[in-house]
Design a protein that fits this description.
alpha+beta, globular, single chain, 3 helices
Length: 93
């Protein structure tokens, strides 16, 4: 049996709480199985995120660090939990 492990940051957050309106937030996805990653990227796009392929699974560690920083900023500053990361600069395609 083959199991694909994928890190999907904001996409997972949106699936956990369907009332989130992603707007133009990025959905970062990391994994070593390109076919599985493509499915998660398509899912993220279908629910309103701009899908970003963050590379191999080892990059999931970076995405987790981004999530930890995001949560700690929310707690420290009493910000709403419906925020995320915005990548500025690349084309919109």
């Amino acid at each position: 049996m083959k199991i694909a492990i994928i890190g999907a940051g904001n996409v997972g957050k949106a699936l956990a709480k369907s009332s989130i309106k992603a707007g133009h937030q990025e959905g970062f996805v990391a994994g070593d199985d390109q076919a599985a990653k493509d499915k998660v990227l398509a899912l993220g796009e279908a629910i309103g995120f701009r899908p970003i392929d963050a590379g191999p699974l080892v990059m999931a560690r970076v995405l987790e660090g981004m999530a930890l920083l995001n949560v700690s900023l929310q707690i420290r500053n009493n910000w709403p939990w419906k925020n995320g990361w915005k990548l500025v600069g690349p084309p919109n395609d």
